[in-house]
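quick one before i forget lol
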Amino acid sequence: MNFTDDLIAQSLSHICKSSGENIKNFKIIKESPISHPIPQKYNKDKLVLLPINPNSSFVYWEITDKTLEKFGIDPKNVQLSFKLLDAANHEIGEFSSSLTIGNYYINHKSGHKSGHKSLHVKLFLNLCNKLEYISSSNIIGAQQNTPKSMRDDLIYTSTLLGGK
């Protein structure tokens, strides 16, 4: 798909619908291609949880070779275990991966009766069927249900503009 100036203008006008503003005069800045590619890894242990909607979240991680060496693990033979937990540290779900850098979509719809919940992920190394704790993600607040009065374009706009 070729993103033309008209298509960009149309999408900008849709975004500003909820605020009552219309973008009429704007200038599109054409950027040159990236001269330095985005790195595949940052060589820093990281575990981040991001909310997507009331029923799902996205987690991404990077575990460094240095951390694996500390536990005597060959990076080519690693087994990671992830546990999704609520505010009371009750396990909601789990998944595993053999990748030291990766991401995963989590469905956390079932098992919660309250309107809001706090969620986080804990990462473990699986060492001979023994779980060794590595790190915890940030804590997110996830809403159980989207309010019925909330329009889709408002949710989209709020997410896109960072809730402002």
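fyi The longest strand covers residues 116-127.
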